Amino acid sequence: MRAVEEDFLLYLKWMTDPLTMKYWEGMTEHFTYQRVIEEYWAGIREGVIPCIIIYQGKSIGFCQFCILNPQYYEVPAKLYYSFAGRTELVYGIDIFLGETEYRNHGIGSQALMLLMRALFSDYHADCLMIDPKIHNTRAIRCYHKAGFRDLFIVPHRELQDGIYHDSLIMGLKKSKT
Question: What is the pLDDT of residue 126?
Answer without folding.
Answer: 97
